[in-house]
Amino acid sequence: MATREKSDCPINLSLELIGDRWTLLIIRDMVFAGKKHFREFLQSDEGISSRTLAERLQTLQDEGILTRSDDPTHGLRTVYRLTEAGIDLLPVLATLGAWGSRHRKADERLARITDQLAAGGEAALEKMKAALRTEHSV
Amino acid sequence: MATREKSDCPINLSLELIGDRWTLLIIRDMVFAGKKHFREFLQSDEGISSRTLAERLQTLQDEGILTRSDDPTHGLRTVYRLTEAGIDLLPVLATLGAWGSRHRKADERLARITDQLAAGGEAALEKMKAALRTEHSV
DNA sequence: GTCAACAGTTCCAAATGTAAACTGTTTTGC
DNA sequence: GCAAAACAGTTTACATTTGGAACTGTTGAC
């Protein structure tokens, strides 16, 4: 995504980075399923290809949304962690989930999660962000 | 976008429809700039191609996000209007804009708009939704 | 020492997106 | 009443992105 920015509109700038089919699904898996490893992302229901996954993880790393580091306890394993900018995408996931829950035929169990998050307002979001900071700190 | 759904996750269902570079920019133009005509969307800074625009408008219409009708006062003109599902995308635009405003180098004047909307909580959103309902009703 | 786990990479085909020119009406300005 | 501009797209040729499958090279488990 080395494309020159097409405008300085905040919505456009967000979309230039996360406006695609896969990026927010990766973030979703980190936020709601606690995934941290390449192989885990590969196993999601939507079936991202390893090629696309590798490219997205690299871009997200370049743009400061997540960090990549070696697992000290396991030489082969790589750990991906959300940065503060990545954790800050939680409200986007919440509103996106709430919309899908209301206007598409979504799984009820999953819908409850984002619905509660969106309905809980700032307080619910901050609580979950705090938990994510703990989980993704080194 | 006649793709079979890959999962029933509400976030995935939202992304399958609006997770791309252009769709939310069209909605943004309708919501914040009051655009309603093909030629107006074409003139945005980001420069969508007429082919992509036509395809997206068709999909959004098929999926019930907007409606298409002839302008009674002007035989050539077509009017696109947001449905309730389309208006309901406002919180997504607000959080997306707030994120871009905080984490990218966004235009300050534009950033203020989404920032206030996101900071104003449910009340600010509902107020703007009410205005959109009036503007996009027949 | 063998086998599975791990994070990718490589290659090719298919799908999608872009730019630019073009269509066929209708309305506007004179 | 006629020419030019406005309107919503379509078409075509090309470039870029994506998807699927097979493959690499290393490390850890048994």
From TrEMBL, chains A, B:
It comes from the Bacteria. Keywords: DNA-binding, Transcription, Transcription regulation. Gene3D superfamilies: Winged helix-like DNA-binding domain superfamily/Winged helix DNA-binding domain. Residues 9-108 form the HTH hxlR-type domain. PROSITE patterns: HTH_HXLR (PS51118). Pfam families: HxlR. GO terms for molecular function: DNA binding. This is Helix-turn-helix HxlR type. It comes from Mesorhizobium ciceri biovar biserrulae (strain HAMBI 2942 / LMG 23838 / WSM1271). The lineage of its organism: Bacteria, Pseudomonadati, Pseudomonadota, Alphaproteobacteria, Hyphomicrobiales.
